[in-house]
Amino acid sequence: MSHYSRDKLGKFSYDGISGLRNANESSSFYSRRGAPNQLKAQVLQGGLLRQVSPSSKALASYKASIMSPKSSSSDFFTTLVAQMRRIDENFTLEWTDETPLTQALNCLIQAINGIEHERSQCPDGYIPQEGEEYYEANENLAHFEELLKAKEEKLKNDEASLSREKQILSNEKDKIKRLKDHCLTLEKELREQKAELDAREKEDNEKINLIKEKLEREHQEIDEKRRALDRDTHEIEVIKAKLEDFSNSLIAEREELEIERSKIFEKTLEIDKEKWKIESEKAILEEKLIINNHLKEKIDEELIQIEYERAEILKSKIDLQSDSLKHSEYANDVESEKIALSELQNNLYNEKLALAEDRERLIQEEERITQILNELEDEKRKIFEERNNVEKDKQAVKEEREAVDEAWDEIEEKQGSQTGGKNPKNEDDYSHMLEELQNQIISYNKEVEAREKDLETKNLSLMQREEELERRNEDIQALEFSLLRAKRDLEELSLGTIPELETQSQHIQQILADLLAKRSEVDTGYNQLQAKIVEFERSKSSGAQSPQIQKLADELEVKMHKIKEREDELGELEIELEREKKENLSHALFLQRAQKEFEIECAKKEAEIQAATKKLEKLQAKLESAIMLMSSKENQLMNLKEILIDERNKLASPDLNDSRYRIASPNSFSMNDTPKE
């Protein structure tokens, strides 16, 4: 529905409402108020008719409303009902099967009836003014116009969507037409192909009939040949059954031998495992013993001789191995390897014995080293005690020096008290005091001499201990040198024996590979022989040739027996080679572990030796410092002794004043020139 049709429909409906309303109002105005009111109503009615007048375009709006979809009419009626409910809240629309226009008219009539009913219920004095009705009608019309504009825009959008859908449908129609044309062409092609296939089927049926006839003839010929072949195959099957029985018996025997071989192999593996466990335990024990022995090892002339003998044994072993490898042939490789491995085992056993002897000697050296270490500890403890004694002597010397100083101070005080005059009593006291002082000096000198002798004896003992420590230091350095040499010998041994063992294991692996290749060649020959026998049985079906088959069977048995013997020999060789390989690997691992442990213990021993040398150097420095202090104290004591002797001689003179003067000077000397600690 367009905007223009909706506008006209609204105008038309409003004209109907206004006409009915004006008719009623005119009758009421004439009845109630007379002519002036009638003129006013007519003027207003003329204005409304000039603004809202029905036109011929209402029919077009009616047609548009008929052609419009139901959704727009339903929206229109909902808005119309909403507006009518503004007048009457209890307004309801009665829907019928009539056209939308008649339904709108019915709605308007119902609204007008409601208005008239309310107007009849209003009091007589209240008459609504025409201007208010006019403005309300205008507002309703404006609202309806806005609604119609919105509906018109919606219809425009719907028309655009319909046009797009029409375009899409037209495109789809074109596609369908093209598809129809293509389907027609395909149908024509299918018809042509069906015709061709029918022709081909006819030709094929004719050919199949001819082939069937040929096949029937050939089938008859084949049946005849089959009968002849059945006779031949029956004879071949008899021979084949005999050979199969023979081959089955051979296979059963072979399987039994394989089972026995596997059992023997498992037993040997269990034995090898037990041996390996025992050897590993022995190796662990030997490693522990070597570790303990290397910690306390000291090289002397006997160890040098043992190492020299070991080197000669290794050289002889290497020469024997090189000679055996040079002069051996390919047929006797396995036996020569056995001999070489047995020699290696003997040499290793000899080396073990030598190592056991070395172990015993090293245990003795360990005991000696422990004694040396204990003596060093004792020396350290004695040096510490002597140091404490020296400190005590220092303290005693200090106390004695203080006592001498106090005695000199008393003498000076007494001399100062005697300056005023001479007193015989004081002289007697002074002479008595001098005698006591001389006696004290004599006793002090004796004690000093005794201490000097003790210090000299202690110094001599310290010198002797220093010499012993130097000798022990030299012994430790020699031990370190012997350890380094033993380390170097072990490195040479590892570089010599382990590569040899690796080369021997590689050579054994090559021999095993050759043996496996020969075994595979024998197996292939056996398979080829079996295939030839089967072909011979198929080709020869007459009974006259059975002796040749028997000969071939006998030859096959002989060859199978030889193959089994060779397999048994190879199995034994493999077991022996595996065992020898494991032994060589265990010896190699043992040597590698021993070398590593020896290096670790050498490093630890070197660190201990360095720490011991540092401690000895510190102790030597402390001893030297103590000796220097003791010598300085001895010099001080000697100087003090000389001063006391001089003072004693001076005090024995009769002139007391001169003696006083002479005593003052040594006092000052003793106070000023005494060495400070």
From TrEMBL:
Chain positions covered by the region annotation Disordered: 655-677
Chain coiled-coil ranges: 134-260, 327-479, 549-650
Keyword entries, A-Z: Coiled coil
Domain of life: Eukaryota
Biased composition (Polar residues): 665-677
Protein name: Uncharacterized protein
Organism: Stentor coeruleus
Lineage: Eukaryota, Sar, Alveolata, Ciliophora, Postciliodesmatophora
